[in-house]
Amino acid sequence: MTANTAFAHRNLPRLLLEAREAVMLHTRPSLREHGLSDQQWRVLRVLGEHAHEPGGVETGRVATEAFLLGPSLTGVLTRMARDGLIERQRCPQDARRTVVRATPAGLAKVQALSQTIEAHYTWMAQHLGPTQLTALYHLLDQLIALEVPGAQTQEPDTATVEE
To answer: pTM here?
Structure first.
Protein backbone atom coordinates (compact mmCIF):
# COMPACT_ATOMS: atom_id res chain seq x y z
CA MET A 1 0.00 0.00 0.00
CA THR A 2 1.41 3.39 -0.94
CA ALA A 3 0.66 6.64 0.73
CA ASN A 4 -0.42 9.46 -1.55
CA THR A 5 0.18 12.75 0.23
CA ALA A 6 -1.60 15.72 -1.22
CA PHE A 7 0.34 18.91 -0.67
CA ALA A 8 -1.64 22.10 -0.48
CA HIS A 9 1.29 24.29 -1.49
CA ARG A 10 3.76 24.26 -4.34
CA ASN A 11 7.30 23.04 -3.62
CA LEU A 12 8.89 26.35 -2.60
CA PRO A 13 12.46 25.04 -2.16
CA ARG A 14 12.35 23.56 -5.65
CA LEU A 15 10.91 26.77 -7.11
CA LEU A 16 13.65 28.83 -5.46
CA LEU A 17 16.30 26.49 -6.87
CA GLU A 18 14.67 26.64 -10.29
CA ALA A 19 14.61 30.46 -10.13
CA ARG A 20 18.29 30.48 -9.14
CA GLU A 21 19.15 28.25 -12.09
CA ALA A 22 17.13 30.45 -14.45
CA VAL A 23 19.08 33.52 -13.32
CA MET A 24 22.38 31.65 -13.50
CA LEU A 25 21.69 30.62 -17.10
CA HIS A 26 22.45 34.24 -18.00
CA THR A 27 25.43 34.57 -15.66
CA ARG A 28 27.30 31.29 -16.14
CA PRO A 29 28.50 31.91 -19.70
CA SER A 30 30.18 35.15 -18.56
CA LEU A 31 31.70 33.39 -15.57
CA ARG A 32 33.11 30.66 -17.81
CA GLU A 33 34.54 33.27 -20.21
CA HIS A 34 36.50 34.59 -17.22
CA GLY A 35 37.52 31.09 -16.11
CA LEU A 36 35.38 31.11 -12.98
CA SER A 37 33.10 28.55 -11.36
CA ASP A 38 29.90 29.61 -9.62
CA GLN A 39 31.61 29.19 -6.25
CA GLN A 40 34.66 31.22 -7.27
CA TRP A 41 32.38 34.02 -8.44
CA ARG A 42 30.49 34.01 -5.13
CA VAL A 43 33.81 34.34 -3.28
CA LEU A 44 35.04 37.13 -5.58
CA ARG A 45 31.75 38.98 -5.25
CA VAL A 46 32.00 38.85 -1.45
CA LEU A 47 35.62 40.01 -1.57
CA GLY A 48 34.72 42.75 -4.05
CA GLU A 49 31.95 43.97 -1.76
CA HIS A 50 34.49 44.12 1.10
CA ALA A 51 37.45 45.40 -0.92
CA HIS A 52 37.48 48.58 1.20
CA GLU A 53 38.46 46.52 4.27
CA PRO A 54 42.26 46.81 4.33
CA GLY A 55 42.79 43.79 6.58
CA GLY A 56 40.93 41.42 4.30
CA VAL A 57 37.95 39.24 5.16
CA GLU A 58 38.09 36.34 7.60
CA THR A 59 37.43 33.03 5.84
CA GLY A 60 34.47 32.19 8.09
CA ARG A 61 32.75 35.36 6.96
CA VAL A 62 33.50 34.54 3.32
CA ALA A 63 32.03 31.06 3.81
CA THR A 64 28.87 32.52 5.35
CA GLU A 65 28.34 35.26 2.78
CA ALA A 66 29.21 33.04 -0.21
CA PHE A 67 27.12 30.13 1.12
CA LEU A 68 29.99 27.66 1.01
CA LEU A 69 30.84 25.01 3.55
CA GLY A 70 34.31 25.27 5.09
CA PRO A 71 35.86 22.26 3.34
CA SER A 72 34.51 23.44 -0.04
CA LEU A 73 35.77 26.96 0.60
CA THR A 74 39.26 25.64 1.34
CA GLY A 75 39.47 24.00 -2.09
CA VAL A 76 38.00 27.01 -3.85
CA LEU A 77 40.45 29.38 -2.14
CA THR A 78 43.40 27.10 -2.97
CA ARG A 79 42.52 27.19 -6.68
CA MET A 80 41.87 30.93 -6.60
CA ALA A 81 45.23 31.61 -4.89
CA ARG A 82 46.94 29.41 -7.48
CA ASP A 83 45.27 31.44 -10.24
CA GLY A 84 46.34 34.75 -8.68
CA LEU A 85 42.78 35.90 -7.86
CA ILE A 86 43.12 36.07 -4.08
CA GLU A 87 45.76 36.36 -1.38
CA ARG A 88 45.58 34.54 1.95
CA GLN A 89 47.36 35.37 5.17
CA ARG A 90 47.07 34.76 8.88
CA CYS A 91 44.82 37.14 10.76
CA PRO A 92 47.06 39.65 12.59
CA GLN A 93 44.79 39.59 15.66
CA ASP A 94 44.40 35.80 15.82
CA ALA A 95 46.97 33.56 14.13
CA ARG A 96 44.49 30.65 14.18
CA ARG A 97 42.36 32.45 11.62
CA THR A 98 42.97 33.22 7.96
CA VAL A 99 41.95 36.33 6.07
CA VAL A 100 41.64 36.68 2.32
CA ARG A 101 41.47 39.57 -0.10
CA ALA A 102 41.05 39.82 -3.83
CA THR A 103 44.17 40.64 -5.82
CA PRO A 104 44.11 43.35 -8.49
CA ALA A 105 43.46 40.57 -11.03
CA GLY A 106 40.54 39.29 -8.95
CA LEU A 107 39.10 42.78 -8.55
CA ALA A 108 39.43 43.31 -12.31
CA LYS A 109 37.26 40.23 -12.86
CA VAL A 110 34.72 41.55 -10.36
CA GLN A 111 34.63 44.87 -12.22
CA ALA A 112 34.29 43.25 -15.64
CA LEU A 113 31.60 40.80 -14.51
CA SER A 114 29.67 43.39 -12.52
CA GLN A 115 28.86 45.21 -15.76
CA THR A 116 27.43 42.05 -17.34
CA ILE A 117 25.51 41.11 -14.22
CA GLU A 118 24.10 44.60 -13.72
CA ALA A 119 23.00 44.59 -17.37
CA HIS A 120 21.11 41.35 -16.67
CA TYR A 121 19.42 42.93 -13.63
CA THR A 122 18.43 45.89 -15.82
CA TRP A 123 16.98 43.44 -18.35
CA MET A 124 15.02 41.71 -15.57
CA ALA A 125 13.71 45.07 -14.34
CA GLN A 126 12.59 45.90 -17.89
CA HIS A 127 10.74 42.60 -18.26
CA LEU A 128 9.33 42.23 -14.75
CA GLY A 129 9.01 45.93 -14.11
CA PRO A 130 11.09 47.75 -11.50
CA THR A 131 8.27 47.60 -8.95
CA GLN A 132 7.93 43.83 -9.32
CA LEU A 133 11.69 43.26 -9.06
CA THR A 134 11.87 45.44 -5.95
CA ALA A 135 8.90 43.53 -4.49
CA LEU A 136 10.71 40.25 -5.22
CA TYR A 137 13.78 41.46 -3.32
CA HIS A 138 11.62 42.52 -0.38
CA LEU A 139 9.68 39.24 -0.32
CA LEU A 140 12.90 37.23 -0.37
CA ASP A 141 14.33 39.38 2.45
CA GLN A 142 11.14 38.83 4.47
CA LEU A 143 11.21 35.07 3.83
CA ILE A 144 14.85 34.87 4.94
CA ALA A 145 14.11 36.88 8.09
CA LEU A 146 11.08 34.69 8.83
CA GLU A 147 12.95 31.41 8.49
CA VAL A 148 16.34 32.48 9.85
CA PRO A 149 15.81 34.73 12.88
CA GLY A 150 18.68 37.17 13.21
CA ALA A 151 19.72 36.71 9.57
CA GLN A 152 21.23 39.78 8.01
CA THR A 153 19.28 40.86 4.97
CA GLN A 154 19.87 43.72 2.57
CA GLU A 155 18.86 47.18 3.62
CA PRO A 156 15.68 48.17 1.77
CA ASP A 157 17.34 51.01 -0.15
CA THR A 158 20.15 48.76 -1.48
CA ALA A 159 17.78 46.10 -2.74
CA THR A 160 15.62 48.37 -4.83
CA VAL A 161 15.52 49.00 -8.51
CA GLU A 162 15.44 52.53 -9.83
CA GLU A 163 12.37 53.37 -11.84
So the answer is: 0.83
